[in-house]
Amino acid sequence: MAAIRLLLSLLTGLCAYYFYSQETLSAGGLDYLVLNHVGGSGRFGPFQGDMAAVTSSMTVNFLSYVQLTVSAMTMLQESQGSIIVISSLSGRIGAPFTLSYSAAKFALEGFYSSLRRELRLREISLSVTVAVLGYIDTDNALKIIGDKITMQANPKEECAREVVRAGVLRHREVIYPYWSLKPLLLLKEWMPGLMERMLDKFLILENIL
Amino acid sequence: MAAIRLLLSLLTGLCAYYFYSQETLSAGGLDYLVLNHVGGSGRFGPFQGDMAAVTSSMTVNFLSYVQLTVSAMTMLQESQGSIIVISSLSGRIGAPFTLSYSAAKFALEGFYSSLRRELRLREISLSVTVAVLGYIDTDNALKIIGDKITMQANPKEECAREVVRAGVLRHREVIYPYWSLKPLLLLKEWMPGLMERMLDKFLILENIL
Questions:
Q1: Which residues pair with A132 in a beta bridge?
Q2: Is A101 among the catalytic positions?
Q3: SS percent in chain B: helix, strand, coil, step 5
Q4: Which helix (H) or strand (E) covers residue A26, if one does?
Q5: In 10 A of CB A67, how many CB atoms?
Q6: Which of B91, B104, B110 sits opposite A91 (nearest CB)?
Q7: Band of residue B1 on the pLDDT scale cut at 50, 70, 90
Q8: Which of A113, A108, A97, A125 is nearest to A36 (CA)?
Q9: Cα distance between residue A13 and residue A35, in whole Å
């Protein structure tokens, strides 16, 4: 069995691109493109009209994902490979105090769900898996929102296993933790106001405003 | 009753901003900000990795909306005004052959639904109405996709009335045409694959690929 050729984007956007273009293009071939870098979306707090944060979040959390995908597309088509995109509940349901991040994650959902449909219509065998993640206990997440919400963080090791599993099985999406997030997604269009008010109860406003 | 002070963004992003900053700021006050300009998202066809189209669509169809909102925010808070954002079914359900447009519309949905929640939590009385529109018989839409889908276009006059009505009533969203789109939105998270296949049947692939 051939070795699996994998690219993980774990750095900020531009670094990831540099790393990719220098090292991987010359290695020849790619089976999995895992897009997971984050940055530039400003602090978790009220939106103060900071356009630099909006632009930066779009560049790092959306445009660089698309750029990496474009660069890898030929190799992924050759290997009938897979794209795995790390999104968030904030990419499905608007999230207060993190507008730039939410907008970029929504943009990812739009781009990659459109791409998945288009690839199928063009009969190109390349899978696109979107990972809709809740609150995960990475150092970064704990630092940024640990004291600002009352939710329990979920283990990153189990999260990573679920994401890898869904990507390998070429599932259209993976939701983690499933039983916390799926009901919210199912009800989102049915009773948006009620659902947002439920979610608002997890926020510790005195630590945010 | 005071005159209603209204700003419609009907031009491309940068022009809209110029128009706004020169004329309206000096007029003093604003009750309604209607964001409706479009451009730069490339042709309706297979995605060829054109990063310029992605960046341009994000700039015109997303970032300039946010910039206009930021510029108008103080006046809108003073008047307890309303923001009306024109989105699309392509901002809720990924759309093949128009990836850049879909991504920008998704980003709008993310930003403005997050903003609405945040304004409520900050107890700022400013309404945000998102208009989810289907296929409308504007000259632009007919020209771009008229020969590429089998759907019937809906009258722009009725569409405009519905959008204005929802904005004035400070509704969170308006869906037009309601009975065509609402079932798709309700089922989106319940059976995404089936729903996308239903939508795919409206595409005239030989006119696209």
A1: A87, A175
A2: yes
A3: 55, 15, 30
A4: helix A25-27
A5: 21
A6: B110
A7: very low
A8: A108
A9: 10
Interval B24-66: pLDDT, tens:
555 668 999 999 989 888 788 999 999 999 999 999 999 999 9
Q: Which of A92, A93, A73, A94 is nearest to A82 (CA)?
A: A73
Interface touch A49/B62, C-beta < 8 Å = no
With beta carbons less than 8 A apart as the criterion, state whether B172 and A193 touch. yes
Tokens representing residue B27 in the block: 């007029």
Mean pLDDT of A59-75: 95
Question: For a pLDDT cut of 90, what percent of chain B falls above it?
Answer: 63
What domains can be seen in chain A, in order of their start residue? 6-207 (3.40.50.720)
Cβ neighbours around B204 below 10 Å, total: 12
Contacts of B63 in chain A (CB under 8 A): 51, 54-55, 58
The C-alpha of A209 sits at a distance from chain B's nearest C-alpha, in angstroms, of 8
- Note the pLDDT of residue A20: 53
